[in-house]
């Protein structure tokens, strides 16, 4: 039995959740509420670093943290997940997985984190740099996705699992429907993919907690 520890609103949790749905894995979901003492303590006992997501495999005893590593684990242990990292294109898939995490997810999170800071603690220079990074990344995606259905060609891979939350939340903090038509078209295809559509549906009740502007 696989157990997936996550939060339905967390972008880095979405990536392996998409992969779990793509391969039809049988798993139990455990929503971690770091604001609840019992939930927080139970999760830290499992993974002292305290970062989500984490996959627990009761059969092997494995505790697997980090979104990319979770998908790597699925690809090695579940036959239906092997196609998420195809051998013939594994370098391209892994590169684009890192691209979307590092150059879209991280600057997006920097902007969100700034919105949650108390008055007087905001970092406008950091936000400006994050927005510039997002624009540069979207410029690259615009060119890279020309003529492609998915990140690495015709097949849905780990790279697309990474792209989905990165592009979705990037559009929340720096809307790009009018400036990057190709990247936005790719996001629309991702949103229509059944696995990601399911993730979005499950996240909807929590979306009111996403900060659309500075809270202080």
The largest β sheet comes out as:
4 strands, mixed
- Write down the overall mean pLDDT: 96
The number of helices is 8
Order of helices and strands: EHEHEEHHHHHH
Oligomer: single chain
Write the layout of secondary structure elements.
Blueprint: E1 2-6, H1 11-22, E2 27-31, H2 37-46, E3 54-57, E4 62-65, H3 67-77, H4 90-115, H5 124-144, H6 158-173, H7 181-192, H8 194-203
Plain-language structure description:
With 216 residues, the chain is α+β, with helices and mostly antiparallel strands. It is 55% helix and 8% strand. It is built from eight helices and four strands; from the N terminus they run βαβαββαααααα. It has helices spanning 11-22, 37-46, 67-77, 90-115, 124-144, 158-173, 181-192, 194-203, and strands at 2-6, 27-31, 54-57, 62-65. It has a four-stranded mixed sheet, with helices on one face. Helix 1 (11-22) runs parallel beside helix 3 and helix 1 (11-22) packs across helix 8 (194-203). The longest helix has 26 residues, at 90-115. The radius of gyration is 17 Å and the shape is globular. The model has no long low-confidence stretch (mean pLDDT 96).
